Amino acid sequence: MHHLLLDVWKHDITAGRPKLAAWMEEMNKIEAYTQTKHNREDTLNYLKKRFLIQQ
């Protein structure tokens, strides 16, 4: 969801939240977590189809 907010609405949920930004950075360092991450573009396309109205 973070990618959708950042890409579509240009809203960074970590701005002004240093603990959230640090937590996200630490999560990205964990090998077990990074193995479950998906391609950002694929995720964005899916979220746009699912949650945004297509015109």
Largest sheet, strands/sense/barrel: none
H/E element sequence: HHHH
Number of domains: 1
Mean pLDDT, to the nearest integer, reads 78
As residue ranges, the low-confidence spans are none
Estimate percent helicity: 55-70%
Shape: flat
Report, as a whole number of angstroms, the end-to-end distance: 21 Å
Work out the radius of gyration.
Answer: 13 Å
Which band does the percent of strand residues land in? under 5%
Oligomer: single chain
Question: How many runs of DSSP E, i.e. beta strands?
Answer: 0
Class computed from helices, strands and strand pairing = mainly alpha
Number of helices: 4
Question: How would you summarize this macromolecular structure in one to three sentences?
Answer:
The chain is mostly helical and 55 residues long.
Report on this model:
The protein has 55 residues and is mainly α. The protein has one domain. The chain is built from 4 helices and no strands. It has helices spanning 2-8, 18-29, 31-34, 40-51. The longest helix is centred in the middle third of the chain and has 12 residues, at 18-29. The chain is flat, with a radius of gyration of 13 Å.
Give the helix/strand layout.
Blueprint: H1 2-8, H2 18-29, H3 31-34, H4 40-51
Structure keywords:
mainly alpha, 55 residues, single chain, Glutathione-S-Trfase_C_sf, flat, 4 helices
